[in-house]
Amino acid sequence: MRLAPEVAEALAGGRPVVALESAIVTHGLPRPRNLEVAREAEAAVRDAGALPATIAIVAGEARVGLDDEALVAVAERDDVVKCGVRDLAPVAARGGYGGTTVAATAHLAARAGIRVFATGGLGGVHREARQSWDESADLEVLARTGIVVVCAGVKSILDVGATLERLETLNVTVLGYRTDRFPGFYLSDSDFPVPWRVESAAEVVSVVRASDELGTEGSAVVVANPLPSAEQLDPALHDRVLAEGLIAAEAAGVRCKDVTPFLLDHLARETGGASLEANTRLVVRNARLAAEIASELPG
Length: 299
Ligand code: PSU
Ligand code: MN
Description:
- The chain is of the alpha/beta class.
- It has 13 helices and 13 strands.
- It has helices spanning about 5-10, 25-30, 35-45, 70-75, 85-95, 100-110, 130, 135-145, 160-170, 200-215, 235-250, 260-270, 275-295; strands at about 1-5, 15-20, 50-60, 60-65, 80-85, 95-100, 115-120, 150, 175, 180-185, 185-195, 195-200, 220-225.
- Strand 5 (about 80-85), helix 5 and strand 6 form a beta-alpha-beta unit.
- Helix 6 runs parallel beside helix 8 (about 135-145).
- The longest helix is centred in the last third of the chain and has 23 residues, at about 275-295.
- The chain is globular.
């Protein structure tokens, strides 16, 4: 694992650092939009006064903080693997390239000493999980990793209610940022309530401090940051296209880690790019809020 020099310096100096995931760049967004979003998220973190550390496997090395050359390689190469935690070692051992999921990014960020992480939407329990047992490894890692994750809820392609139940079982704290409703990724509201509401980055930090004090800092704090309703994807369009996508995935026999990229791609194409616009907005908003939180956290 290699920390970029500026990331190592910032961490040593107690300055704010925000980890960013790369599976969204490698497997969640089409080219060339993926690279633009990666750069916009980094810029949003910098503008809010923190240092971005995008995490990925580059030529066999787990890198925390990518220079532009590495970011371009990860966004544009055809041989980049979607890496959960269990894939990190094999990809590294063979000198390969990997886009890290929420699970793998949270793992590496915590290992590097970074406490705040921004993503789009978490993985979770898939809709047909009763038959397929398909539950994202994101949940298991959040259960045992002391990190603050800013997201727009869980991806709306999932069974949101089941995912919230699993987060409860796994002792993951869930905070709604200026909302009582758990966000629905592309949508502002998933139709589920959020357990706790906070109004500011400072309030998130007081929860983190209390968690340290009470010995619950070994599991994640999820900060759910909704898109404003004026910026969400049209809910009727979303529901229709998603229903078609679920049928298409089933018909095409898509399984395991290919399900999430397949559905995100289907949504992007069938909404004429509107889901991409919403996805971009929410990633940038989450990066900015994560930077505000990191800036309030004592080093
Ligand atoms: N959020 C997005 N786009 C994505 C993902 C999240 O806006 O592509 C990725 C994350 O990396 C997340 C992964 O960890 O999807 C979940 O995949 P799976 O369901 O296979 O665990
Ligand atoms: Mn899965």
